[in-house]
Amino acid sequence: MSTLLAADQPSLVRHDTPVRKFWFDEELEPQRTLAEERLHRQQRLAGVFRLFAQYGFAQGLAGHITARDPESTDHFWVNPLGRHFGRMRVSDLLLVNRHGEIVVGDGPVNQAAFAIHAAIHEARPDLTPQPIPHDMADLTHQQVGRANGARHAFDSMYEGLIESERELLD
């Protein structure tokens, strides 16, 4: 027998070992009011922006991350156009409704972010966060018209920035 994964070897994992709980397990989450849950999501969202920047997923104006609002579930929080991921704060975030109108916050809405995320949030109401970051390798490959490996798709019909939901359907 040459491998540790041979089918006739006994399992090395005990079946009575308790499952370890992580900070993101729902059953460990405390019960929150809507206001507390909104702040929790905003804080995590702002933190994710800064974390993405730290790991190189912030190139100029490219990239956007959203989180669904816990009360107005057809609204989502998004980064304003022009604010670098590494400098994102809770107070910078915009609450946008399904028509692309800013309900809370100041600053321009990235129309590509709105068009993409509005469609995702509508199609998948079970999802809360939606990250679409861009790193330098992705941007470089996009400039020469090639996909960056097998980790994403390449749109051969690309005609520029997405500016409306209609473009997602074409």
Automatic annotation (TrEMBL):
Pinpoint the Class II aldolase/adducin N-terminal domain residues: 43-170
Name one matching Pfam family.
Answer: Aldolase_II
Gene Ontology MF: a single term: actin filament binding
UniProt xrefs under InterPro entries: Aldolase-II_Adducin_sf, Aldolase_II/adducin_N, Aldolase_II/adducin_N_sf
The family annotation for this protein states: Belongs to the aldolase class II family.
Q: Which SMART domains match?
A: Aldolase_II
- Gene Ontology, cellular component aspect: cytoskeleton
The protein in question is named Class II aldolase/adducin family protein
